[in-house]
Amino acid sequence: MESQTPEISREFQSENRKLLDYNDEDFNEFPLNELDDDLSLQDEIHADIEPGEAMIQPPKSHKSLEEPPRGKKLDVITVVEIKGFIVTLLNKLTSNGDLWSIKARISDGTAYMDAEFGDDILRSLIGFSVAEMRVSIKCPS
After folding, report:
1. CA within 20 to 30 Å of 116's CA: 2, 29, 56, 138, which one?
2. In terms of pTM, does the model score above 0.70?
């Protein structure tokens, strides 16, 4: 079976000569996968739609961490587990009573979110509790 290559009309070539002859110096550095949505949108714009017909397409969605609007406090504390990483520490590590506390900006690779780390997580990361720290400061080895 022969492979068929579509012919490009002379009219298309003359109208788009500048685009066809464009020498892209950073072609290998440009993320082409981001163009997929733009290209499909261009196809929809140039599609032949008869009067009275509608082009229906499902909405596009991206996975992300949802965050309340800035400055708005939540009434409910939500505990979530994600596979992510700390991007920026937003304040110093503090001990309030017998609990560790720190705020940080975290990311799962798709979005950023400001979060407050609980005492149990910080105790496991640091290796000791606030009470154990106070005892070690009072009685140095």
Report:
1. 138
2. no
Domain range annotation of the chain: 85-138
92: Cβ contacts below 8 Å, ≥ 6 apart:
102
Each residue's pLDDT tens digit, 86-138: 999 999 999 888 899 999 999 888 888 888 888 988 998 889 999 898 888 87
